[in-house]
Amino acid sequence: MMYVQCNLMSHGLVDVRWLPEKFAKIGQSIVVKETGRAWVVQDTYSKANEKQVIQMRDLHKHHRKGTDI
């Protein structure tokens, strides 16, 4: 499955997430399970497969552990 990095907006808040390609359409409204909040896709960026997304997530977590105070 392919994922697309998306810029999401909800009531003035902005979030960047990887969404499955079928949901990554500018103007599409989605509900994020973790928050229950409705978000609208504002922009789309790069595509990656599931393995690449997991690798990027793990790299980000590792970097944050090493740099957060």
Q: Which descriptor suits the 3D outline?
A: globular
- Rg (CA only): 13 Å
Mean pLDDT: 91
Instruction: Say how many strands there are.
Output: 4
Strand content: over 45%
List the strand order in the largest sheet: 2-1-4-3
Q: Report the major sheet.
A: 4 strands, antiparallel
Structure explained in plain terms:
By secondary structure, this protein is of the alpha+beta class. The chain has one domain (2-67). It has one helix at residues 50-67, and strands spanning 2-10, 13-20, 29-31, 38-49. A 4-stranded antiparallel sheet has the order 2-1-4-3. A hairpin with a 2-residue loop joins β1 and β2. The longest helix is centred in the last third of the chain and has 18 residues, at 50-67.
Give the SSE map.
Blueprint: E1 2-10, E2 13-20, E3 29-31, E4 38-49, H1 50-67
Antiparallel strand pairs: 1-2, 1-4, 3-4
Short overview:
The protein has 69 residues and is of the alpha+beta class. It is built from one helix and four strands. The protein has a four-stranded antiparallel beta sheet.
Keywords:
alpha+beta; 4-stranded antiparallel β-sheet; 4 strands; about 45% strand; globular
